[in-house]
Amino acid sequence: MPANLPPEYYAIERRYRLAKSPQEKITIVRELLAVMPKHKGTDKLQAELRGRIARLNREAQKKPVKRGFSYHVRKEGAAQLVLLGPPNAGKSQTLASLTNATPEVTPYPFATRTPLVGMMPFENISYQLVDTPSIAPDFMEPWLVDIIRNTDLVLLIVDLTEENPGKGIDTVMVRLAQVKIRLRGEITEGEESEEPPAFVCKKTIVVANKNDLPQAQQRFGALKDVCAQRFPLISISAKQPRGLEEMKSKIHKLLDIVRVYTKAPGRPMDRDDPVILKKGDTVMDAAQAIHKDLLRDLKYARLWGSNKFDGQRVERNYILEDEDMVEFHI
Ligand SMILES: Nc1nc2c(ncn2[C@@H]2O[C@H](COP(=O)(O)OP(=O)(O)OP(=O)(O)O)[C@@H](O)[C@H]2O)c(=O)[nH]1
Ligand SMILES: [Mg+2]
Question: Per-residue pLDDT for 176 more than 60?
Answer without folding.
Answer: yes
